[in-house]
Amino acid sequence: MDLDVFVTAHRAEWDRLEQLLGRGRRLTGAEADELVSLYQRTATHLSLIQSSTPDPMLTGRLTQLVARARSTVTGTRRGSWRDAARFFTEGFPAAVYGSRRWWIPTALLSTLLGVLIGWWVATHPEVQAAIAAPEELKALTQPGGGYETYYSSHPAASFAAKVWTNNAQAAAMCLVLGAFLGIPVLWILFLNMVNLGVGIGLMTSAGRLDVFLGLILPHGLLELTAVFVAAGTGLRLGWTVIDPGPRTRRAALAEQGRAALGMAIGLAAVLFVSGLIEGFVTPSGLPTWARIGIGVAAEALFLAYVYVWGGRAARAGETGDVDAADRTATLPTAA
Questions:
Q1: Lower CB density within 10 Å: C or N end of the chain?
Q2: What is the DSSP string of 171-230?
Q3: CB count, 10 Å around CB of 78?
Q4: Taking a C-beta distance cutoff of 8 angstroms, is the pair 226, 267 a contact?
Q5: What is the C-alpha separation between 191 and 285, in angstroms, rounded?
């Protein structure tokens, strides 16, 4: 394409679009229709220039024109409580449901890894000796030791807030770092499973696995599920970098990135619940069966929320992405 000829042929349209935009809302009906038509044509022109003979100055001018025109045509939209309600009843559960083929295998493989590490630590005294001195291990695993007092070492409210902050940061890291081909996500998962496996192994070797599970399961079921969802979403984002599918890599990453951002907000709410359980239920004087029952109930409610509400929303076409009106305009590409 001859850029000079193309510019000469269409400059008048761009100038006219800029003139109409400068008039703000003082447009007649015919001028408003003309603005919409010029906006669509200019968006196509921009796409053609970007795909064939990109010119930085011209591309910058047309990008600005298209953005201004789109804002004028679609109007400014403000968020509302209805948007928040829709996000938590449709968008977030649908996004979790839609990524289940990533986070369910992640959860199963990670749990298996944690169990194997626990078995390795429990059955190999030399591994235990490499972790800490015998006196230190005894201080951790004995009745009233480190593993038991950890959950009551701080006031419940401040402990719950600390746990929530740490877990939300870990989930956010999984979501953000997924763009780096998912490699950092695998490392974060590995560290989490090592910590879990070491605890299982040491308490098993001390004959107190039941106590350890009674402390971990009330909050750990929901907490680990949230981490697995974040990790699976991060790995999905990393795979999008490798294989964006029929879309352009930029468009695919934008879509997955927006969904991941929404996922971070939703998972923060889920982790807030698990933090409350860890701060107030885990160290409480309730019987072990009652504490575990609360954890199982919270996990069951979350899974029902994902599979019932999320499944229904996903089948209706919800993906967890923002509304089409709020997305950056996707320009057509030249064949």
A1: C
A2: HHHHHHHTTTTTHHHHHHHHHHHHHHHHHHHHHHHTT-HHHHHHHHHHHHHHHHHHHHHH
A3: 5
A4: yes
A5: 30
pLDDT of res. 333: 44
User: What is the end-to-end Cα distance of the chain in Å, rounded?
Assistant: 13
Closest CA to 294 of 221, 229, 227: 221
Type of residue found at 118: G
Using CA atoms, how far apart are residues 238 and 232, in angstroms rounded to an integer? 10
- Report the alpha-carbon distance of residue 168 to residue 155 in Å, rounded: 20
pTM of the entire predicted model: 0.72
* Alpha carbon 4 to chain centroid, angstroms: 45
pLDDT at 198: 94
With contact defined as beta carbons under 8 Å apart, do 319 and 98 qualify? yes
CB atoms inside a 10 Å sphere around CB 212: 21
Position 64 scores a pLDDT of 87
d(CA 184, CA 231): 10
pLDDT tens digits, one per residue of 105-161: 999 999 999 999 999 999 999 999 999 998 999 998 998 888 888 887 777 787 788
